[in-house]
Every structure is written in structure tokens, then in C-alpha cells.
Specification:
Layout (H helix, E strand, L loop, with lengths): L1 H13 L1 H21 L14 H12 L9 E7 L9 H15 L4 E5 L13 E8 L8 H16 L3 E6 L11 H17 L2 H29 L3 H31 L4 H28 L7 H32 L20 H4 L3 H11 L1 H16 L7 E2 L11 H13 L7 E6 L6 H13 L4 E4 L3 E2 L5 E8 L6 H21 L2 E5 L1 H35 L3 H26 L4 H4 L7 E2 L2 H29 L4 H29 L6 H33 L8 H6 L28
Parallel strand pairs: 5-11
Antiparallel strand pairs: 1-3, 1-4, 2-3, 6-9, 6-10, 7-9, 8-9
Amino acid sequence: MATFLYRLGRFAFRRRHFIALFWVVLLALAGVGAAGAPAAGTTSFSIPGTEAQKAFDLLEERFPGSSADGATARVVFKAPAGEKMTDAENKATVQQTVKELSGGTEVARVTDPYQGGGVSRDGTTAYASVNYEVSGMELEDASRDALEGAAEEARDAGLTVEIGGDALQTVPHTGAAEVIGIGIAAVVLVVTFGSLLAAGLPLLTAIIGVGIGVASITALAATLDLGSTTSTLATMIGLAVGIDYALFIVSRYRAELAEGREREEAAGRAVGTAGSAVVFAGLTVVIALVGLSVVNIPMLTKMGVAAAGTVAVAVLIALTLIPALLGYAGRRVRPAGEKSKLLGGGRGAERQQRPNMGTRWAGFVVRRPVAVLLLGVLGLGAAAVPAASLELGLPDDGSQPTSTTQRRAYDLLSDGFGPGFNGPLVVVVDAKDSDDPQAAFQRAGEEIKGLDDVVTVSPAAPNKAGDTATITVIPDSQPSSATTEDLVHGIRDAGADIRAGTDAEVLVTGSTAMNIDVSQKLNDALVPYLILVVGLAFLLLIVVFRSILVPLKAALGFLLSVTAALGAVVAVFQWGWLSGLMGVEETGPVMSMMPIFMVGVVFGLAMDYEVFLVTRMREAHVHGEKPGQAVVTGFRHGARVVTAAAIIMIAVFSGFIGSSESMVKMIGFGLAIAVFFDAFIVRMAIVPAVLALLGGKAWWLPKWLDRVLPNVDVEGEGLRFLDARDPDEDRELVRV
């Protein structure tokens, strides 16, 4: 591995014109494809294998033309104080609004509140339901303008009018904080390298890699049904790892220059050593992201695969474009320890001879491993305590900020019709195999009425064939409550008795039931996913480190950091700690996919630091140093770079906390705090403490396993033999 990458690095350095042209052309082709591709709509959300999805598919089949997947809007009206919505003037205003809404080109149907039971018992609140033929992300701006315009006219008539539903759904924006994150990354790179040019290379290559990845996603969005969140995730992860991987190689290149090697040779050795760590670190991220497919939720699978593709591009760019650009830079990229005059170069050499912070810290940890280990574990354990109170759910209008019309509509409906009105359950009765469908419909309604937490049950509404009917059930509790979840399970349990007596199948769907099924599916998939991803990465790290205990320590450390990060997410987004600072206007359950998503992404990112830092230690150990000294050597060469890489990742992820989309905001915070815990507590404190305690046993590997495992030579041991050879022998790139 190291020899092949060494030759690849030298080839890219010599043939830099070809390499640069290749990536520029690829970026241009991706950009042209993105520019000519149709706009992406919202990702179709399906959860195969669940009852809610089965019922939804049945509705599509038995009620053709119902636009079951189309956008919806609830226009909520509230009368002024002392008036009723049934007053003649207010009623005329509402009916005029309904008439205007019915004339829209994309409108499938509009329900008049006075004909469809849409007026509250006290008469102060009413609502009109608007169903569209297309999804919320596919609605034309003219349809949204017409919806908002009709509501504004009703407001002018003196009514309070708010709009709920997904018809006003728009593409989320991240705001200026994302740019600030990139700016912080640039400052960290300048401080790390002491050179504007060296700092600019990782930023430039990361932007090129993200540009290719996101442009490719945009070009394929309509074909592969990729939503806007997919490209946001790819940007978030691709930018972070792209900067980090380039940082690793540029840093090693400068270290090789400091040892007196020529620039082409230094580029080859940088790619052969740090590049090996980049390859395996990238593989762990790809495994974690692609492994999300085991959950069998198409949206999550597409997000993971798209982000994994962007990571793969980042790895290839780091291995090829970075050495090519180093060739263009020439002597303007200085050896490690040298700074440009603009940034303080020319100072006395005695400062460069002092042990750096990484060396001093590692020496302290090696002398006090037990104290450092206990402090790190107890600190992460305390941060993980809130995770015991984790409540999962999917966001609805009730989780929107109170400043939005969707949230105000949600509150008006709760006040006027009860908290369960915002989460109606749709019961589908499939009586195709029943001898008496009408009797089956009637019995289903009666059974549901007898359950607890039920406010109203609508009469069965059969289809034209008369073999299937829908029943709308309004719970007494809010959609995200455990009581509503119990009601869903209660209806499904009653369905078994109904089927036994009538041969009719009873299914529960609707957004509330969908959310419950998604949460259950994600919970069920978490353990298999952990076993798959951690297991595969564990095997990969055994090959990398040729050790059993080091990969085991890496996996256990990851579990500590990800549990602590989940605890922080619960504290902020569920308990409301520091919510104002994070821009969280409304607390509530943590997004259902957050735990499994954090496990996947954070595991991959955590292994970046593990691979880069510990391979430096193993490299020193393989070259003859004692275990304790190898830990110090690894920190002397790697701590500064890992620290910079972690700060960059934290800055990039934190930038997404400014997003208007609650899911993106939560993901950005969760990943940022997880990287902080993993890099600065696990990898920089717990890892060296454990290695110091284990000593030489850390690198133990059974002899039979040592014979079986392939030698990938991540440490670059094979490159030592190149010192005695004529460099002209490696002037051509060869296959190995």
C-alpha cells in the first residue's frame, strides 16, 4: 500500500498538469450536469415493511386520484374576540377564501369548513383543508403565493388566519454561520502551517471535492429521487473530511521537507505514509455511511450513499490533486517549523528546538495514565447521563418556532379542537375478502370508538368499488405523546379481532402512525447496525494496526464519545439547556434517526483521528522505539495536526447550527459536539493513557493471525528501503 501510494504521489507531482486538468474537467462536467438537470423535489419518504406504509400504498391503489402524497394545507381562521365563525360576515369571508383557493391550477380539492365539520364547538375557530396534486417541494411559487394571498385577504377582513401543513415547505437555508465555519477553518490552517499558501491548499481541494460531489448529486437528484437534505449532508461531511485529509498530507509533506528530502520525494513519501492513513480513515467513513442502508429506509440510504461518494472523492483528491498542487507551489510551501515572514518567519531557531505542546502533553499522560484515564471516562460518563432520558420522534408543525405561521396554526387547532386534532389517525379497512364489507366497516368504527384516548371517529368513507374504506380517528392526546402511540397499537390489536370476525384487514396510517413506525424501525435497526459497522471497521483496524487491543480500545472509546454526544443533544434540544444560544426556539423529542445517524457518521469521523494519530505511534514503535516513547513521538508529529483537524471539523459542523431546518441544526450540533468529545477527550487523553498502561501488549497479535493478515504497510516501512536505491528507478508509475 505505502509503496503504491508513494509512486502515485510522485506521479501526481511530476504530471501535475494532467492531474489538475483531470479534476477541473470533472468539476466542469459535474457542473454542466447539475445546471441542466431538473430541480429536485422532496425525497419520497417510505418505510418498507411497516403497517403505515402498507396502508399508504393501499390508499394509492384503491383510491386513485386522491393525491395521497400531495401537499396539504390547513387554513385556520379565528374570529375576533366576542364573535363567532358562524356569524354571517365571518362566514362570508371564509367561503370567499375557499372559493379563491379552489381556483388554483395545482389544487386537487378544498374542504369547506361549514360543510365538512371544520368549525370548533365553541364556534371561535374554523379551518379549510387544501389538497394539492403535487408535493410541497414541487409546488410552484404561484400556488404558494395564491395560498398566502387568500389568507392575507381574510386577515384584512378582520380574522386571524394562519396556515399549517407542508404546502409552505421550502428548501432549508444554513445562513451566514456556514461561511463563518469555513472562515474559522481557514484561520486554523494558517496558524497550523504558518503559510497562507499551504493553508489555502486544503481549502481549495476540499471545495473542489464538495463541488464535484454536490454537483453530481444535483445532476442525479431527479433521477434518483434525492432531496435537498441529501446535498446538505454531503456538503457538511465532504467539506470537513476534505479539509482534514488534505491537511494530513500537506503536514506530512512539510515534515519530509524538514528532514532534507527533495520536493518530489517528499510528496511521494507524504502520500505513501499519511496517504495510507487517509485511505483507511476514508474507508471507515464510507463503511459507516453506506451501512445506513441496513435500516431499510430509502431516504436514509440515499443520504448515506451520496455522502459516502463525496468522501470517496475527497480521498482521491487528497491522494492526487494535493501532490499536484504542491508541485505548482514549489518552494513557497516551506518545511515544517518554518513560517513565512508575513506570519512570523525568521525568528530564532532555538524556539523550534523546544518540545511542542503535543510532546509535553503526551509526556504528562504517560507519567499519569490512571488519573487521565479516570478523569476522561468520568467526564464523558457525566455528559452521557441525559441520554438516559432520550425521547424520539419526528418533527411536525408543533416543533416549529412560534414565529412561524405553521406553528401558530398548530396552536390554534389545538386550542379549538383539542391537542390530538393535529395528529389524526387514518384507519384503512380492507374488506376485499369480506362477505359483508359494510358490516366490516361498521364494526371497525364501533371497536375504535370503544378505545381509550379517542375523541371522535368519522363515519367510514368507502371507495367506488365499496371494498375499502377510510376512518379518521382524532386522539385526545398530542401527536408526539406516548398516549397516542398506545392508541395506535390499541387499534392494531383490535384489528386482529375484527379480521377474525369479518375477514377484513385493519391498517393504521397517517403522519402520526408513520412517525411511530419510523421510530420503531430505527430502534430495531440500531443494534444490528452497530454490530455491522463497528464489526467491519474493527476488522479493518486489525489489518491497519496489526493489533487486537488497539482496535478494541478505539471502538470502546467511540461508544463513550457518541453516548456523551447524544446526552448533549438531549440536554439542548429536549431539555432546553443553552437552547437560546443554539437558536432552538422549541424543544421536543429528539429526531428519530439522530441516534443511528450519529453512530454512523461519528464512528467514521472518529476513526480518522484514531488512524492518523495511532499509525504515527505504530510507525515509531515499528522503527524500534519503546511503547511509552512511541506514544510521545506520535503526539510530537500528530497532535498539532489532529487538533487542527478537529477544530476545523467542529467549525464546519457548527456552521450548520444556523440552518432553518431543525433536522440539519440538530445534526450539525450533534456532530460538532461528538467530534469535540472524541478528538480532545478520547483520542488525545484516553487513548494515550490506555496505550501507556498497556505498554508493549497494546501491539500484541496472535502469530497465526499475523500470518493470515495481509501486510498493508500503513506505516511506510517499505519506503525505508528506497533510501538506498536510485530515485530514477521509480520515475514511472507501476502497478503493485
